[in-house]
Design goal:
Layout (H helix, E strand, L loop, with lengths): L3 E5 L3 H11 L3 E2 L12 E7 L3 H9 L5 E6 L2 E7 L2 E4 L1 H8 L11 E5 L4 E7 H8 L18 H11 L2 H6 L13 E5 L8 H6 L7 E5 L12 E8 L2 E16 L3 E17 L2 H8 L10 E4 L1 H11 L7 H6 L8 H13 L2 E6 L5 H11 L9 E3 L6 H4 L1 E3 L5 E3 L1 H8 L3 E4 L6 H14 L1 E3 L11 E3 L6 E6 L3 H7 L2 H4 L2 E5 L4 H15 L5 H6 L1 H14 L7 H17 L5 H13 L8 H14 L10 H19 L5
Parallel strand pairs: 1-4, 9-11, 15-22, 15-23, 16-19, 19-22
Antiparallel strand pairs: 2-3, 3-7, 4-5, 5-8, 6-7, 9-14, 10-13, 11-12, 12-13, 17-18, 20-21
Helix pairs in contact: 18-21, 20-23, 21-22, 23-24
Length: about 625
Amino acid sequence: MQKIVLFSASDEVGISNLQKTMQSDVDISNSNSKMAKFVKMRLWGSIKTKKSTKTYNSLEKGDILLFYQNKKYIASAILEDKEDNKSFAKTIWGTKEHSETTWDYIVHVLPKNFFSCNVDNEDFNKLMDYKKKFKPTRTFNFFVPKEENLKKIETKYGSIVKALESIGFNFGNSTDSKYLLLRYNPPKKRNKKNREYWSDILGKEYHYGKIPNYTKLNPKSKTIWFYTENEQIFLWGHGTTSEIINLPKNEFIAKMSNFIKFDEKVPVNQTVTQKIKELPGWNNFNSINEINKEIYDQINSEMNKPYEEYAEEIKNNPFPLAIKIETIERILRHLSSGKHIVLVGAPGVGKTELARRIMKVLPQAKNPDNLQVATAEWTRMNIVGGNDLKGNFQPGIVTSSVKKQEWLVIDEFNRADINKAFGEMFLSIEDLKIRLRDNEKYEGQSIIVIPEKFRIICTMNDFDKNLLLTELSYGLITRFAFIDVEPNSEEEQESIKHQILNKSSNFIEEDYSNCNTQIISYFNTIKNIREKRMIGVRTSRDIIRYTVSTSTSKKSEDSWKFLDEAMCDYLLPQLDRLDRDTIEHVKKSVEDNMSELKDAKYDFIKKLNKMEDQLARISNILGSDND
């Protein structure tokens, strides 16, 4: 008899493993798994215990697997095979913390036999004749309903699959099932006539007429409710159509079941948005748009995706950042844990670009364009806000962002007088409440509650870090995590090449290759220089771009000349006011890796010599051999 097996994935490890190995394909082609011939599979595992061993041994191909999470069953699957393979399990999931225990008992599912769903726990309990509040809570363990319960629903519905489908589980059998986006505009975006006529109830009833794609909205349709703003797609939540009610005047109401509401105003990330807009028939103005299962599953997966799993997309889209993936993952872990962050690094290292990408990719950030550049003139008025001359409260950038529930990026954080501008706000961040002054009210409120998910991302030049940290009290410093952002020398050359060739139609691969000798010499040099003085990726990009550009337009001339010019104009200004040891280190790095520039016709080394002479004269005046 076909069995049902319940799996719980409600803790942090379970949620992560479910997303990585059951909601996503796993390449097992090079593993020691007996299923390696299938190349890609979906996997789940259970810890070996006396109880799980008995259940594991009873499993057979064709059994139904149901995955439970947060009072819902979020996926169903058909078992393809099983295996007891500890070494393979360790390769896939590792081990439990401080233990050699892993999830030895592995179940395999073909990707085509995995289905997303959204079934309320209580609906399943009613079907199985369980107590209303029953839930499978033994994480990573098997739970199999009694045979008598299975026989009862099989007799009533004709099969166990049909019984489960009756409450919203999906096994890919319905030819009527469609994946749809349903437009639901916020009240402020609807005119009075529409508000009075269309009687939508968010997540419960969708009122529509004979509009494009209306025939595709049927019982069992999988829907995601959305609206658009400045071509950005925002999501309300997702649910399954349970019934279509016919109304007069060729109108209909689609009733929803199992609707899950996302955080208010959740934007779709760039990657998924692009996939949606590339679909045949997509129309930004349609109330009903058809999508495919892949996009539907990806959206639902992304809504609960751990921050850390966005690292690859942040790093590589739209071009590879020359920043270590481990640094990006670390930043995302801080954000996930509830911390506001300060990205610290040399000018041009990629801090602002990284902050922008985080804002664009993480759905929780909501508004990718909410970026402000700090200035020395900032006061409380700019940050918290204050009353204008008419006595009306004007919100500052933080208060406004909190009210809109949008994350905020503050670029060049160090430019502001930190205590003067932010001192009061830091205390508010700690309490999650912005307390306005006695004569101030914002939209009728004197206390603005800060959402727990609100984050501030700041950028700061490392040259100013010590000064800034000296000025701040430790009480204020503890409100932020300070993360050093440094160039990844191993990836920098490829990243810059990608930026130069893909951002300009003026260059081709051959132009870049013609300067290969100079480019390799430059990167060897800059790697050595960074042992004493950090130089940003932007500086390297500007130097290489100038060298390639000028060498392309003046092919008869010397590429070393153009590299020398670029280093004088972009690199040399960053060496001003450095100590003699650092200048000597830079000079030696250039001479060791760019011996061509020793020639008297080039200026960079000559200007370094001039800097050394000036520093020597200053030392003599001060009567010291030191800097």
